[in-house]
Amino acid sequence: MIRIIVVEDNLLFRELLVSLLTRAGHHATGVSDSAGLYRELLRADADIVVLDVGLPDQNGFDIARELRAMRSTRRIGIIMVTAHDSPEERVAGISSGADIYMAKPVHPGELEAYVQRLYRRLHDGAEESGTRRWHYRKQAGQLLAPSGTALELTHTEAAFVDILARHAGKPVERRDIIALALNKNPVDYDTRRLEAMVSRLRKKLRAAYPLSQPIKVAHAVGYIFTEDITVQ
Fold first, then answer.
1. Where is average pLDDT lowest: 85-89, 109-113, 168-172, 190-194?
2. For residue 142, what are the CA distances in angstroms to 82, 194, 221?
3. Above 70 in pLDDT, residue 131?
4. Is 150 exposed, middle or buried (0-12, 13-18, 19+ CB in 10 A)?
5. Which domains does the chain have, with CATH numbers?
């Protein structure tokens, strides 16, 4: 059964798409924004995302780019659905990582054909992309870049990297980082302290290995380590 997440803020259209996909025999779930999408992806992997461009909290182009950046979702099928069908919008959609760009109204048969095509592509043995590997030395409190450069981490940075490394490729919620990694009460903790620490750490990573930035923000959820990492 193909698992599909429909991201659409229009309730009636979202329910219509979920109903069409469910009747076609798929496991379809609907959410209204990017935060709902990331929560669903935390709960279980998906094969395909049907993604509206105009969402209340984050546009579909940015979401597609984030999905392509995450190790756990970089090969997910993305069908972008929008009311705008100009050549410029189509180019923006495909450039952001969408596999298919569909204009509303959506024809049920066309949508099902795209779903089947993307699912076959996902299971045709396509090669995994990305070969960079980081190494986290827990006892030494060091993060080794793919280049071999060693970054000395503060206690807080090490705790943050540790929880992200153990969940590499999947978003880790802010409250879990605060409670489990930093051993603080999420209710009382000033999240600006976490944001400032992450900003400093990302600058360290950029200086040590400018070819990539593996720590990314999972919008409205938390943070994610997007590249391969080994914990030693």
1. 85-89
2. 45, 19, 26
3. no
4. middle
5. 3-122 (3.40.50.2300), 133-231 (1.10.10.10)
